[in-house]
Design a protein that fits this description.
Chain lengths: ~110, ~425
């Protein structure tokens, strides 16, 4: 059972209190974008076996969206962070680099 | 290789079963093949089989990182049906279902196809309308199904409780020639037939890289060294995204865990397959007497072949209302598989952006039933460059907005 800490209420939430909302930090494309950009935005998803960043919602709690960094191969949780950011915070990225040297995700590249 | 027959059983009985041969060979990889298929699940093996049988292409290797049939093919609840809503789905799933009818004879391997009938329960007014619509669509597609009354459901499934307070049974979509088959046997039967045609099935051989030259595939890297090929078929289900990335392209796929469980064996009590899509519960009884139960997928990406405990709880809780006797059963085992989900819950059978590479994936929670039809279409696609059955399932449908939306009725497609 997955346990994530809601960065707003600081509660350790177990999975049934939360809703998974898919890939984090999606760049939205609107009118005037190319077919390829639209397809990417709507359907192509990061699906790594390893470090992954996601959006979650504390539905049965404060109701707010937040972000989580997880490993999809082991279910290890690296940390959670605010929804008000376009990128995972630097200290979290460093923490992941220490555990998974050389990790990559979209255009992000870890150290090591 | 010797054929299996009643005579062979008698012969072997007379000599203490010392003469049975290995069902397939375990060769070392050659330097080069005409075709390499990655993934020895049902779909990969069926693709190889029909390449040989329908197109005479037998210089083929099937590479498997684990053991053959150890992926979703050996982990599913074995439901076979073809009562889909959209025409392209009905065509490929009905082709598959009809091939299941004669598979044991065709492969000379008993896959225990059991067309015992499948009911999809309608437990809300929306489902009643949805399944009536599907029944009409099936009539036009030439797929034999029928919308049946609650009384008929009760006749077919005496252990069912029709008037549960939360999930009453309002009817059902009945496919008389749907059913189950032995999942391992499907993989083993195809593997044996492929090996017999001279194809190499290489287990414990993980593809770790894909080599392209000038936009065309030339071979793969594996933990058993590099192997060259002219054409490459990627048929790796939950790992489709991981493998595509190694070849340098992306797929509209997300990988999630789906679970199943079985009870202790009990006396025969239900001789049809029952699916309850509203509550995400599926149940049939195996020949050993176990109740085989499947549930819904987890909500988040996962490669661990486990699943969240609360999903089992939800599935069983819902089933208990519709089948009160389930409350008295002890559950024996639970497991998970990694399913490859697309946005429209329909599969991908397509040329890849790199010349010579073909992908077959996205069968998600419902591809066991499709194995022979998918292999048939994929072989044609790889041999000829196009296939009528595969045509609508190309990758271009996501750019062009031509979805084959099978998820509307229940949010899942098993
Ligand atoms: C719990 C559960 C219940 C299900 N119930 C049903 C059902 O009732 N009815 C139904 O129709 N469908 C059902 N399904 C879905 C069905 O099992 C799958 O759609 C189908 O088995 C997929 O077959 P496949 O051959 O594509 O994949 P798999 O059988 O998973 O085969 C893919 C193979 O590729 C190998 N592989 C991966 N990466 C590599 C690599 N890099 N190199 C070499 N090999 C690699 C894997 O080891 C694996 O053996 C269920 C699935 C699950 C998990
Ligand atoms: Zn909260």
């Amino acid at each position: 059972m997955l346990i994530l800490e809601c960065p707003y209420c600081g509660v350790q939430c177990e999975e049934t209190e939360l809703h998974a909302d898919g890939e984090a930090h999606l760049k939205r494309f609107g009118p005037g974008s190319s077919d390829d950009e639209f397809e990417g935005y709507l359907f192509r998803r990061e699906n790594p076996k390893g470090v992954h960043f996601e959006r979650w919602r504390h539905v049965n709690g404060c109701g707010k969206y937040f972000h989580a960094a997880r490993c999809t191969a082991t279910l290890e949780v690296f940390g959670t962070y605010s929804a008000q950011t376009l990128e995972p915070p630097k200290d979290l990225q460093d923490k992941i680099s220490a555990k998974r040297p050389g990790w990559t995700w979209r255009e992000l590249k870890g150290e090591g | 290789m010797k054929r299996y027959s009643a005579f062979a059983i008698a012969r072997e009985a007379a000599r203490y079963h010392t003469g049975w041969e290995r069902a397939w060979a375990s060769p070392k990889p050659k330097k080069k093949y005409d075709v390499i298929i990655v993934g020895a699940g049902g779909h990969g093996l069926a693709t190889a089989y029909y390449l040989g049988k329908n197109f005479g292409i037998t210089n083929v290797a099937v590479l498997e990182k684990g053991w053959l049939g150890g992926g979703n093919t050996g982990r599913n609840t074995t439901i076979i049906r073809s009562n889909y809503l959209q025409d392209p789905s009905a065509a490929i799933y009905e082709k598959a279902r009809s091939l299941y009818e004669t598979m044991s004879q065709d492969l000379n391997y008993n896959v225990m196809f059991s067309p015992r009938g499948v009911i999809m329960l309608a437990q809300t007014e929306h489902e009643v309308r949805g399944y009536q619509r599907t029944a009409h669509a099936n009539a036009l597609q030439g797929v034999k199904t029928e919308f049946i009354s609650p009384q008929k459901v009760k006749e077919l499934v005496p252990i069912i409780n029709l008037d549960g307070p939360r999930y009453p049974v309002l009817g059902g979509l009945w496919q008389e020639r749907g059913g189950t088959a032995r999942h391992d046997a499907v993989a083993w039967g195809y593997a044996r037939a492929c090996s017999q045609m001279g194809m190499d099935i290489i287990q414990k051989c993980e593809v770790t890289g894909v080599r392209n030259e000038g936009g065309k595939v030339v071979g793969v890297e594996t933990n058993q060294g590099p192997i060259d090929c002219d054409k490459l078929g990627m048929v790796v289900a939950g790992h489709a995204g991981v493998l595509a990335e190694k070849a340098g392209f992306r797929l509209p796929i997300e990988s999630l865990a789906l679970q199943a469980l079985v009870s202790e064996p009990i006396k025969p009590c239900m001789d049809v397959v029952v699916m309850a899509n509203t509550v995400h519960g599926y149940m049939s009884q195996s020949d050993k007497g176990e109740m085989v139960i499947g549930g819904g997928t987890d909500g988040f990406n996962n490669y661990t072949q486990r699943g969240s405990y609360h999903h089992i709880e939800e599935t069983v809780r819902a089933l208990v209302e519709t089948f009160p006797m389930v409350s008295r059963l002890k559950m024996l085992r639970q497991w998970g598989g990694i399913v490859d989900m697309t946005g429209d819950r329909s599969p991908i059978l397509s040329k890849a952006p790199i010349d010579g590479i073909f992908v077959n994936c996205g069968w998600g929670t419902g591809g066991f039933k499709a194995i022979p039809g998918s292999g048939w279409a994929m072989a044609e696609l790889m041999a000829k460059g196009h296939s009528p059955l595969a045509e609508d399932f190309g990758l271009n449908r996501f750019t062009e907005g031509r979805f084959i939306d099978e998820s509307v009725a229940a949010g899942v497609a098993h």
